[in-house]
Amino acid sequence: MATEPSTEPQTEEAPPRGTARWPRVLAVSVGAFLLWMLLFAPTLQHNAQVSPIGTRRTVALDILRPIAATSRFLQLSHIVSETDALTGRTGNRPGDGSGAVVIGPFHRHHFHLHHPTGPPPPPGATTTTSTLPDIGHPSAANKLRVLIVGDSLGIDMGGPLQNDLTNTGVVQAELDGRESTGLTRPDYFNWPAELQSDMISIHPQVVVIMMGANDPQDFAGPPDIPYSSPRWNPTYASRVSTFMQIAEAGGARVIWMGMPPMQNGQLSSEMSDINTIDQSQASLQHPPVNFISCWTLLGTAQGTYTPFITNGSGQVVNVRTPDGTHLTPAGGEVLSQSIINYMKGTLHIDLP
Amino acid sequence: MLFPTFDFAIFFAVAFTANWLLNPRPRAWKLAMIALSYFFYGWVGWSYCFLLLATTVVTHVGAAAVHASKTEKSRRWAMGLACGCLLGILGWFKYYGFVSVNVDNVTHALGMGRIIPLLQVALPIAISFFTFMALSYVIDVYRRQLTPARPLDLALYLSFFPHLLAGPIVRGNELLPQLRHRRDPNAVDYSRALWLIMGGLFKKVVISSYVSSAIVTPVFTAPAQHSALESIFGAWGYAVQIYCDFSGYTDIAIGLALLLGIRFPVNFDAPYTARNLQDFWRRWHITLSRWLRDYLYIPLGGNSGSEARTVRNIMITMVLGGLWHGAAWTFVVWGALHGVGQGVGHVRRRSRVNRGLPAVAEGPVRVWVQRFLTFQYVCLGWVFFNATGMSNAFAVLGRLFSGWGHGSPLVTPLLVLVVCGTVASQFVPTLRVDRLQAAFSRQHAAVQVGLLSFFLLGVTTFGPAGVAPFIYYRF
Questions:
Q1: DSSP code of B272?
Q2: Does B5 lie at the interface with A, CB-CB under 8 angstroms?
């Protein structure tokens, strides 16, 4: 009897070494993935909890809750926690540093402080918030200590600023930037705790803050406070105020950089609202926090988004990355120079 | 969609199952793979799918016109027009902003007004890769090395998701025949595939991320704040970071394709063991360097003319190769450095031959000195490659001279171990790797599940909280 030509390559022999039939490969791969999920479930559950509020988070939590419970019941979660403890991988890290394989909307890099200990405040330095110590004449022997903190835009600004300040030879500048972070979700990254830790280790005399691009989102509860809720603005204002107070508590001058206009109209409007809150909270502090607006520095004269600006020497420079949100190195440099000019002109700090 | 994400794991489970279930039905298989590939690409931004589609249409029409042309002249015109369109698309998206700013500044310096509008065009991810694949396809048809593929085959060739975002740059004669034949569902090369995927994940998630945050980013962010030793490790660290990042991506891509029954060409072959720059480019991003050789260097005349002409061809090829990576002067310098290095090497070799001198004895000391010097020169190029601008690159390099006498707290024993260990690992014979793969394949399925899951656990435990996009995604 004639047979139809087979549609599948058939073989009676065993597969060559290192090869297998596809269902077996699928079974091994899916099995390994599920076992990994079981071992890693508590961390995955935590990562889901600190992700932006929405359907994706809800679904992820619903799936992971029973798996994580099983993992804990079987004591499997100890493998990860013990490894973290052994390798010292604990502490305040975005997403709790547990190896989540998710990318935040503004995720690019993660900057650490690399000189975590700074000199103590000079003898006689006052730590009251109303009378600030004289820091007007830093020198190579008595460097001005500057701390720069922020989210990804803060990093874009902070890199050039750190470099420019260091190049003066009279400033020790430290950058603590964390991408995808802000003040709305301390469960993802606790900025107040981080700033307090920085203040203790560095004793900065000037703190530069640029933060807020990731903040237009719901506060995680319970109860959650939706971004559109009337309770959102007062809650955010309170967090900004607390953050400013932490920065000022050690007697440091605080400079708060506002957010620039964004290419996305809605995000730009949200940034404008964030700036209004930041600026009003800055003026309420004792002494007032120095708020510098970026709105026209990095925008048009009318305050709208532009990727190109003309610098002082008449050269056109590209100040924004193609995502319409972040700053190019040239954009960071524009802000850096404006901050240094502010430090010289308004804060009367004698910088070369 | 990034490879090391939960989203991709779910996507690939679906793609893998669909791939083998539809394997007996070639047309349905191709349609499903194209749909999945466009879904994969659209995850980044749906509008870019239209660009990929437009590139496919231009490539198909161009190749068909070349094939249908009766005379050599009309063939050349058709090929030129198709390549011009493809390069025009690439040029608009990738280079318009760079060109417009530089032209504007030149006209400003000459006291002239603005002659072209300033626009910032968003760069679609992967455009450099699929444009180069499209160009090679059209040129291969023109050279009669390839007959035009059917539209479905061409669409899948250009969009096939394992290579779509960052290569390897697969030739038509390598991938198209595989798309026309059914794959053997009884012999999936899973041992090698899983080895490549796991190794790639480890390189990207653990090594590259660690080196980036431990030394590279701090050094390049604030060069003035770092010592000479930290700057040296910043450059060496970037060499390790970009190798682990890009070869890690490529390994995962090759492994994923293998699981689908498709073989991709090798893209890396222990590049830091190279003894000269020519050798380096035979080992680094091999699919790009052979593209540049076959579609740029040889058409320019290659090394068939005078020495000056050969050096000129090398320089043009390497500078354009640098610009392929990005629209910035730092990439031009990076390419020029490699061009100069290869040009000097070529002249030295040619001059030795011309003078009738015997070959130099290849002692181990000489070989290691060559390797060391080549690595340092490559690292010099990497400084420009990674710098945010020329001043940033010179600031990092300047610290090599002015940064002595300072502490180097970032150069920890762990960092030294990781950087040196990664470079040293390139000298491990591949035979040992093959033995490990064979040993894995002999294990019972349950043991394989356990080994894989614990390896994944190690990668996710020791990796950072989030995975940065692959460096080559932005090219």
A1: G
A2: yes
